[in-house]
Specification:
The protein has 301 residues and is mainly α. The strands form 2 sheets. It has a 3-stranded antiparallel sheet. Helix 2 crosses helix 4, helix 6 packs antiparallel against helix 8 and helix 11 packs across helix 12. The longest helix is centred in the N-terminal third of the chain and has 20 residues. The radius of gyration is 22 Å and the shape is globular. The mean pLDDT is 87.
Length: 301
């Protein structure tokens, strides 16, 4: 069996994927995996073939995030084939996967965050606060609902605005009806209530389509505001800083203040702790010297 045929069957079995995830998977297959492997026989894969694929992506200047995503999908397909007995040995043995460079994630300082969040309209300020204060993804912030404040210090993230359908949908990596509770700092709660009092809500939703309140907030609306801020030039935005940097700020704020990475991974909705650790390990204030002092204090107690 050729890779393209096997991968198509494997993709058809991924029934738990949302519309956006299916689109992302299709893009990786069509633009990266199929051009490299579509006619290759499945039983000819080994670590040399996989390592050569990674090196080719590096030579072609493929971004690290895309390299990592393409490798992850190839890994999932090959491990599925290995489980079915197509390979005598794991074809991924000894492979060094593409490494995410944490220095590429530009995290705003408190001062930069304060200036940028207030550089556009009330909608941008609200979304910036939700992402930096509660760790929401863009689409999750777009679906903010005042009824999801389940306690003075807890917000329940239960849905997002899907980029493909432009309507409310289940959370990424979650089944329909699943949710995650996240910390709700007092200042973010104040922002939510201030916005609701000033602009009103529709069925509890704070953000709706500006031309049709019966529809969800358009996903592209945040990008338009970000470009507008950068073009105006009234605040300094460091090179490579993106909207997602607000979410990086949340992780940084948690980890540098000693909040366990296991909690941070859960609040951010990461599929596994490995993802959180790979991206944010450099923010953790741990060291052997610090550990020795803490352990010594325990021994003296």
């Amino acid at each position: 069996m050729q890779f393209r045929e096997y991968a198509a069957g494997w993709k058809a079995g991924q029934r738990d994927l949302g519309a956006a995830s299916v689109r992302h998977l299709t893009s990786l297959l069509e633009h990266h995996l199929f051009p490299a492997f579509q006619s290759r026989r499945m039983n000819t894969f080994d670590h040399k073939v996989v390592d050569g694929f990674i090196q080719t992506m590096e030579r072609n200047g493929v971004g690290l995030a895309t390299q990592s995503n393409a490798y992850d999908k190839l890994k999932a397909i090959l491990l599925d084939a290995h489980r079915l007995g197509i390979f005598d040995q794991n074809p991924l043995g000894g492979i060094k996967p593409p490494q995410y460079d944490p220095t590429r994630a530009v995290i705003p300082s408190v001062t930069q965050l304060r200036e940028i969040r207030a550089a556009d309209d009330d909608t941008f300020l609200l979304i910036a606060d939700l992402m930096s204060g509660c760790g929401m993804r863009n689409g999750e912030a777009a679906a903010v609902n005042i009824n999801n404040i389940v306690a003075d210090d807890v917000y329940r993230i239960s849905e997002q605005v899907n980029q493909t359908t432009r309507d409310y949908a289940r959370l990424k990596h979650r089944k329909a009806g699943e949710y995650r509770d996240v910390p709700l700092p007092a200042r973010i709660k104040d922002t939510i209530e201030w916005y609701a009092n000033k602009h009103g809500t529709v069925d509890g939703y704070l953000l709706r389509h500006p031309k049709d309140p019966s529809k969800a907030f358009p996903y592209y609306g945040l990008d338009i505001r970000w470009r507008r801020i950068k073009t105006a030039g009234h605040v300094h935005i460091p090179e490579r800083m993106v909207i997602y940097s607000f979410r990086h700020f949340f992780a940084s704020n948690c980890l540098t203040n000693g909040i366990p990475i296991t909690d941070v991974a859960e609040w951010m909705g990461h599929r596994s702790l490995d993802i959180t650790f790979k991206i944010y390990r450099h923010l953790m204030p741990g060291s052997i010297g610090k550990a020795a002092k803490i352990l010594d204090m325990g021994l003296d107690a």
